[in-house]
């Protein structure tokens, strides 16, 4: 196998060079941020190591970790807490998803200087919650009326945010027009030619897509930074203005989709999706209880993009903020296990994924959890080594 620098450079080839520098800077922040930005390393190692415990095939988000759970508003206008990142999604053994998630618990706890014993307790709780939910065979969801503990507080807090507050942070007023702000550190100017093409493209999407909001037109666009693993992809934020309601605006995120980093390493035949954006949004719609607002796809300059509304209620539960409330973590981790199983049950039996009976049987079998935990613990140690090596060689890659 190639050395770490070669593996990182090979995977990140083709990303925007200036933004790739920012990605490497972000990955150097701490071991957990490095783990978030190197999903491909994890699955390269999975494919090269002794096999994980046998498990049924399931639709997986592919990059499941503790900060890929969060809030969003569904197309039914209600707010949910659920899995929220599907860039790497595909059909795979369920244990691959669990190994990625459990490894993230070990790495996050070490990053926060929480004792290893407590990390193991949380891993056991996550897997128990996952298995129990599978064994029951019924998918569940979390929204403000059913949420408890920190997740309840989190959802109630995001519900209080308004579009006015979001617009105030993201926009400025110029000559009586509302425009996207370039003072926001996450926004970058788009050159004149590209800007004109993007505006024209989105105008066409608004006219022709059944997923587009009714009677809006595009006012402005900026390049947008977000996430860790997705830094370096082409990503744009549009401001839309209503033609029928005075002073009413929407923010639309348009994000480039690349092939899943899991795909080269998975010995499972995949569906032939129309393009990568169709894969991402298609699997997201299968796994989430309700689809995110305005979730759609488009193609621009021969690249596929997913489109969705940028919402005031969309947020990720930041794990490092929970360190002071360790006891409250039990409820959060338990919820994450339930949501992982629910997403697999919800999409079970669809185009190659195992049926509900097979998922129930896997949940009732307690013979795989110890082996998976051991694999994840070793993987966390390996990623600690990768992180330290990366910090030493980063300057040669920027």
TrEMBL record:
<dbReference type="InterPro" id="IPR011009">
    <property type="entry name" value="Kinase-like_dom_sf"/>
</dbReference>
<dbReference type="Pfam" id="PF10009">
    <property type="entry name" value="DUF2252"/>
</dbReference>
<dbReference type="InterPro" id="IPR018721">
    <property type="entry name" value="DUF2252"/>
</dbReference>
<protein>
    <submittedName>
        <fullName>DUF2252 domain-containing protein</fullName>
    </submittedName>
</protein>
């Amino acid at each position: 196998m190639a050395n770490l620098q070669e593996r990182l450079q090979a995977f990140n080839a083709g990303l925007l060079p200036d933004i790739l520098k920012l990605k490497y800077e972000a990955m150097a922040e701490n071991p957990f941020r490095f783990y978030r930005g190197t999903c491909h390393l994890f699955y390269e190692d999975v494919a090269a190591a002794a096999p994980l415990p046998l498990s049924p095939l399931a639709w997986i988000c592919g990059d499941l970790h503790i900060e890929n759970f969060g809030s969003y508003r569904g197309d039914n206008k209600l707010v949910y807490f659920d899995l929220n990142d599907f860039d790497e999604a595909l059909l795979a053994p369920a244990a691959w998803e669990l190994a990625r998630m459990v490894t993230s618990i070990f790495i996050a706890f070490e990053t926060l200087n929480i004792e290893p014993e407590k990390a193991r307790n949380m891993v056991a709780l996550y897997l128990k919650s996952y298995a129990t939910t599978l064994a029951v065979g019924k998918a569940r969801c979390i929204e403000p009326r059913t949420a408890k503990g920190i997740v309840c507080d989190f959802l109630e807090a995001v519900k209080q945010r308004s579009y006015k507050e979001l617009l105030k942070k993201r926009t400025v007023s110029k000559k009586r027009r509302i425009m996207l702000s370039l003072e926001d550190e996450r926004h970058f100017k788009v050159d004149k030619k590209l800007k004109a093409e993007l505006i024209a493209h989105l105008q066409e999407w608004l006219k022709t897509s059944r997923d587009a909001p009714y009677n809006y037109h595009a006012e402005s666009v900026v390049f947008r930074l977000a996430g860790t693993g997705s830094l370096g992809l082409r990503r744009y934020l549009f401001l839309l203005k209503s033609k029928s309601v005075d002073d009413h605006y929407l923010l639309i995120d348009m994000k480039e989709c690349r092939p899943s980093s899991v795909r080269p390493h998975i010995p499972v035949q995949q569906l032939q999706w129309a393009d990568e954006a169709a894969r991402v949004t298609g699997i997201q719609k299968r796994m989430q209880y309700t689809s995110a607002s305005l979730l759609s796809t488009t193609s621009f300059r021969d690249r596929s993009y997913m489109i969705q509304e940028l919402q005031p209620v969309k947020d990720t539960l930041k794990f490092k903020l929970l360190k002071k409330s360790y006891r409250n973590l039990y409820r959060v981790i338990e919820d994450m296990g339930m949501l992982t199983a629910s997403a697999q049950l919800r999409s079970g039996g669809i185009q190659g994924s195992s049926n509900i009976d097979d998922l129930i049987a896997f949940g009732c079998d307690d013979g795989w959890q110890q082996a998976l935990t051991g694999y994840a613990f070793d993987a966390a140690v390996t990623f600690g080594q990768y992180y330290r090596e990366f910090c030493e060689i980063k300057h040669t890659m920027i």
